[in-house]
Amino acid sequence: MLAALVTTACGGGGSAAPSPSPSSAPPTSRATTSPAPARPAVAIPTCGPVKVPPLDAANFPDSTNIDNKWFPLVPGTQFVMEGRANRDGGVLPHQIVSTVTDLTKVINGVPTVVIWEVDRDNGTLAESELSFFAQDRDGNVWNFGQYPELYTNGNFTGAPKTWFAGLSRADAGVLVRGGPQLGSTEYLQGVAPDVEFLDCAKNVKTAERTCVPTNCYDGVAVVDERSGDDPSSGIQRKYYAPGVGGVRVEAVGDPEDETLVLAKLVTPNPDTVAAARQAALDLEKHAYQVSAVYRATPPVTPRR
After folding, report:
1. DSSP conformation class of 278
2. Which of 10, 49, 126, 172 has the highest CB neighbour number within 10 Å of its CB?
3. What is the pLDDT of residues 37-68, one digit of tens each?
4. How many domains does the chain have?
5. How far apart (Å, rounded) are the C-alpha atoms in residues 279 and 284?
6. Which residues, 6+ apart, have CB-to-CB distance to 112 below 8 Å?
7. 169: left (phi over 0), alpha (psi -120 to 50) or beta
8. What pLDDT digit, counting tens, does each position of 179-209 carry?
9. Cα–Cα nearest to 197, from 47, 40, 83
10. Domain containing 219 — which CATH number?
């Protein structure tokens, strides 16, 4: 299931989290500058009995202006999710720090917003990730790919779960709908068969109230996510507050038992924007060196 729970909101303050340093030296040049071609119009694998129409880049006229009510992405906004997860070392404190950058990347013909995310177990770096989102004309926010670097004891071990829509049989999916409706059919959040990624989601509640360290929120949409490739992994239940984004994650039958709450918000400011931009550029530089899939994508560019 998607590990990232990117949220943005007004309020809070603080400084940007530091960028992790990969153990491998970054490359001196990028491998490609041409956008990945759009996929042919064919049916894609999906969740449940309903097939989703093929991705059409024309449905993303203003794709980097992500103002979805439950998932707004404002460059420079940073959030800190804190909780616990049952990892290899048992139940450990778990923290995910995500920052919306002012960078974009064209994937499958669609400009996407770049998110930089750092995942720590008991204070030790476990993942450093770039993820890529775009909004369609109906306000749905799509997941176009992920580059998650894995670390053991703080040392880089690889990025085997990298995927991008339009490459290696992978396709984008909807992360958060523009208008979540209770009882709606299950929908695809993304599929990449080569890395055994198939995420499915369904809206289960639309007017919840939940309280976390940052605030109490009303009108919260609740989404259940599951892995179509691994039913034994259970469900991640995610809570999205209007005008804010993700504020809570709960586990339902998930052996990892990951639970997170929004513990801190940092509003956009020049420091967070600059720090996130540089961290994302550094991570991409390393990605071009270690990932063949990433080398098939164009470089990130500043948002216009």
Report:
1. H
2. 172
3. 444 444 445 576 555 567 899 999 999 999 99
4. 1
5. 9
6. 63, 64, 104, 105, 106, 132, 133, 134, 144, 145
7. left
8. 877 767 888 999 999 999 999 999 999 899 9
9. 47
10. 2.40.360
